[in-house]
Sequence to fold (313 residues):
Amino acid sequence: NSGGETETKVENLLLTVATTDSVGECPLQGASIQVLGSGGPIAEGPTMRGRAGTSYLLWIDGEPRLLIDAGAGSFLRFAEAGGKIATLDAILISHYHADHTGDLAGILNSGGFEGRSAPLPVIGPGSAPRFPSTEDFLTRLLDKESGAFAHNGGYLDGTENKPLLQPRSIDTDEGAAPPVGLDISNDYSVMAHPVHHGPAPTLAFVIEIGGKSVVLASDQSFLSERFQSDLTGSKPTILIAHHVINGEPGQPRGLHRTPEQIGELAKALQPERLVLSHNMERSLSRLDEGLAAIGVNYSGPVTVAADLDCYAL
Fold:
């Protein structure tokens, strides 16, 4: 592109950056995706105050139906949003970093008081060196003899007034494995897409309902080539991308897409709206720079997510 064309794209992007005023409470009718946690893995401030670790909640007709990730702080946001284990169809885990799973034990503990009897699927990635499979993660967490939270071990066998968790691991092959359809509900469909996130086996998720869709891109690097290829031209209603700037101290390169690479992904998928979540101090303090980099390839509406923002589908 010429310099003039790039400047025009950036101007258009900056004009379409939405504030939290453009999103509201989850509607009582239809489907929506709520951001429970819009933050990242570092306890930062002041920009990051009020941001829990990554977590999302799918609502349908006023009921929480699908929990995606449960990062540190999401226990509180789950309660504030009105989340209930009792109505969930499943829990999806993108990967086993603490900022995506740190509050899972607390949310399950709370759910043990709800009287749910139906089994609850928990679906996440398979194992790799230093990363457990979904089955192993739950066993290490909840086993009645050796689990960190053995007192909640009834989740593993459906006893002690706990619903039986049904773990399922999906092979990722470092982001090269094919997508897998998840048989969760007749009301909507979910596809799990392996993505590349360094050594951590990781899944992105695509939820489709009533002709609308949301792509939860999760933590992924530009090496997630199959993911981008499979979804090119899919035109989702919402693309939620994780907003991290690589190369800072403590942040290994190759774990996340840069803002420019987020723009390349958005250009390929052509979403109606791009939502930036998993925000960090390094990305928010350089927001204009990041938006300009995104705008080189994508000029559609952009929202910087905050906790409890809700987007109707």
In short: The CA atoms of residues 57 and 64 lie 7 Å apart.
